[in-house]
Write a structure and sequence with these properties.
Elements lengths: L2 H14 L6 H12 L6 H17 L7 H15 L3 E2 L12 H7 L1 E2 L1 H13 L6 E3 L6 E3 L5 E3 L5 E3 L1 H11 L16 H18 L3 H14 L4 H13 L3 H14 L6 H18 L1
Parallel strand pairs: 1-2
Antiparallel strand pairs: 3-4, 4-5, 5-6
């Protein structure tokens, strides 16, 4: 890993491991490292805070959570005009909170982060739920809300439909799908989105950067170790590729893709020999 890599990884580790740094700050730091080097994080935090204050000042005091949710939905999606990006869903920028706030558009995970953050300003503890393929928010008493679809209240049938749309085979709805996810899990999920988007657009260096940021949070993830090896191979960094692929096989010797990885290592060694 070169000095530039060490620099951004160190910067990232300091941020995500800082107990005084909240999820909003960590999301903005992620954006600064990957795409917006000149981003003023303090100014971006103030933008979100100002939205929250405007929301708070627009309502009368009420302890009724249903009422508060209806006002939050009206403020964010009607007054401010935020909405899910159905036209360019896989645009990597939809994973960056500053972009979402500026463009008033986003994907389930970033809109859920903003939604739950604004909820704090009106006394709501909105939990971010790591539902497969579509992050949602719990509004209390198992009330599931979808910020990607204007805060729509989700029924069991709605949740099953989301699963059926995103998975080829029929998937059973199990209680674990409705568990709250931690800040670390949210950051990893965003980074995996970005890793995939960058890879699909052949931005291997950016994809690798995301991969290493995930490993900074979860150093022993076999999947991420394997993917670093695959990306290093694509970038013709053969020594690094073999190191990470071998490490993957040590961690998961009976992995389903073991034959593919062994064949890839063989091809890399052949290429190295041919270049000598």
């Amino acid at each position: 890993m070169n000095s530039e890599s060490n620099s951004f990884i160190s910067e990232w580790k300091i941020c995500f491991s800082n107990p005084k740094s909240n999820l909003i700050e960590k999301c903005l730091k992620l954006a600064q490292i990957l795409e917006y080097p000149n981003l003023d994080i303090t100014k971006e935090i103030e933008k979100i805070h100002d939205l929250g204050i405007t929301l708070k000042n627009s309502i009368v005091e009420s302890k009724n959570s249903t009422y508060k949710i209806s006002l939050l939905n009206e403020f964010l999606f009607q007054t401010c005009g935020f909405h899910g990006d159905v036209d360019d869903y896989y645009n990597p920028k939809n994973n960056f909170l500053n972009y979402v706030v500026d463009k008033k558009i986003g994907i389930p995970i970033t809109l859920s982060i903003l939604y739950s953050e604004l909820g704090k300003h009106i006394g709501m503890n909105l939990r971010i739920i790591g539902f497969p393929s579509h992050v949602i928010v719990e509004g209390g008493e198992e009330l599931m809300l979808d910020p990607f679809n204007s805060g729509k209240q989700l029924s069991v049938n709605d949740l099953l439909e989301i699963l059926n749309i995103n998975y080829d085979e029929e998937v059973e709805l199990i209680p674990e799908y409705l568990n709250e996810i931690t800040a670390e899990q949210i950051l990893i999920r965003i980074l995996r989105n970005l890793k995939s988007s960058y890879k699909d657009s052949y931005s291997y260096n950016q994809s690798l950067k995301c991969n290493k940021m995930i490993l900074a949070i979860n150093p022993n993830s076999p999947e991420e170790i394997r993917d670093v090896g695959i990306l290093e191979e694509k970038m013709q960094n053969y020594e690094n590729a073999i190191e990470f692929l071998n490490k993957y096989l040590e961690l998961v010797p009976n992995a389903e893709d073991v034959d593919f990885i062994l064949e890839l290592i063989k091809k890399i060694r052949e290429r190295k020999t041919n270049h000598l």
